[in-house]
Amino acid sequence: MQVRKAVITAAAPNQNRIPTQQLVDCQGKDKSALQLILEEVLSCGVEEICLVIRPGDQRSFEQAAGDLVGSLQFVEQSEPVGYADALLRAKGFVAKEPFLHLVGDHLYLSASNLSCAMQLVNVASEFSCSVSAVQSTRENNLPYFGIVSGTRVPRKDGVFEVQRVVEKPTPTRAEQELVTPGLRSGHYLGFFGMHVLTNDIIAALEHVVADPSISKPTLSDGLDVLRSRHKYMAFEVRGTRYNLGIPYGLLISQLAIALSGRDRDRILTELVDLLAQRNAVAVDGGRDA
User: Fold this and answer.
1) Could you state, in order of their start, the residue ranges of all structural domains in the chain?
2) Which of 43, 68, 102, 140 is 20 to 30 A from 8 (CA-CA)?
3) Which residue ranges does the record assign to the Nucleotidyl transferase domain (predicted)?
4) How far is the C-alpha of 118 from the C-alpha of 44, rounded, in Å?
């Protein structure tokens, strides 16, 4: 299965500002979050990229893309009616081909010599089906991620056959319905923000969008329909995802990138100095009291 196309969603309320944020990459170069996401996409052989945005945002995304803007096409989601609808805006672009999908508010650091996207595409090609990247996720992070449960595929490290998909479950529901054997207690398979999806996802998304009982259908809703109709896998990527949209998400992402790059020693020294200064202020303040 060849994956030539990618869809990045960035149309949710307040999500339009995140990809334009500036960071410093592992080589010490200033880049936008969008440029880092696009580099991840292009690392696995993708040739065409569609960005799903809100009306009026195209110019700012073009600027944020820098010299990678030539690889982009844009479609708009006119109203914020859900994640499933946002992906369906790219139906004409994907044109029945399998495609890589990433969210516009996550960054990725690989723990392998292959990028996270390349690892995922390789697994999807091997199994010839939709595959979602997942990561072992602590219970306290359940409000931020879709969660899957599944059974391990024999002799395939980190590959699972998906049995359930639930968007941002409560801890009680996760404990009752979404435990995956082999994970540590209190940990679940949380979405990584990256998927390879076959054309089967389109019918599944259209099904949930047409369901009047779902007010704002999500990708998780569509994937739960997909797994009931077709083979659908999850893969525990060798890497880490960083959610830019949560409190301190940008700061944590930048620290993770810096500590993986050429300026690691400098950043560690700055952190130690900062902590020492804060400790000295606290001690002096205690004496004055």
Assistant:
1) 5-263
2) 140
3) 21-221
4) 5
249 vs 246: CA distance, rounded Å = 5
Per residue of the chain (289 residues), what is the pLDDT tens digit? 899 999 999 998 777 788 889 999 999 999 999 999 999 999 999 999 999 999 999 999 999 999 999 999 999 999 989 999 999 999 999 999 999 999 999 999 999 999 999 999 999 999 999 999 999 999 999 998 999 999 999 999 999 999 999 999 999 999 999 999 989 999 999 999 999 999 999 999 999 999 999 888 999 999 999 999 999 999 999 999 999 988 899 999 999 999 998 889 988 998 888 888 877 766 566 555 5
| Residue range 5-263 in CATH 3.40.50.720 | no
**Do 219 and 159 meet the contact criterion of CB atoms below 8 Å apart?**
no
